Amino acid sequence: xxxxxxxxxxxxxxQGVSPVTPSPTAHPVYVxxxxxxxxxxxxxxxSKFVWVFRAPEAQLFDxxxxxxxxxxxxxxxxxxxxxxxxxxxxxxxxxxxxxDSIPWLLLEATPGKAGSGALSAIAWIRRSETHxxxxxxxxxxxxxxxxxxxxxxxxTYSFYGSK
Length: 163
What we know:
Blueprint: H1 2-14, E1 26-45, E2 48-62, E3 68-73, E4 77-80, E5 85-94, E6 104-111, E7 122-132, E8 148-162
Antiparallel strand pairs: 1-2, 1-8, 2-3, 3-4, 4-5, 5-6, 6-7, 7-8
């Protein structure tokens, strides 16, 4: 199955279509705007100090009504206002067209144990239209090890079900 998906994504990339688009067998269910922060911790890595991604922390808003419909946090995990939860595993990643922004992602979704609610039938999550969120290139050194920073970002999260 993953060979088929990988082939499909490669063919999309060759056609100039974003590789972070789910297969044609998926259909959009929800589109929301995420507004929040990407959290990074300063730590040693190999022979230098770098900001290491820890977790996102964002609120999710309906793009039409601007009403908050959920949250996004570590895992990565999305929680809807009805209590349903889905976690994601990155399957595809491509740089944002905005070099100062976090990448666009396609994540395979796994519904939470509750088994019902708005997110129970979600198969894929797409993060796109990102603005901000990248770790700074400086400011992490031996004197700042263990410190955290919260970098503001926005993104569009599209939730897809399978046909």
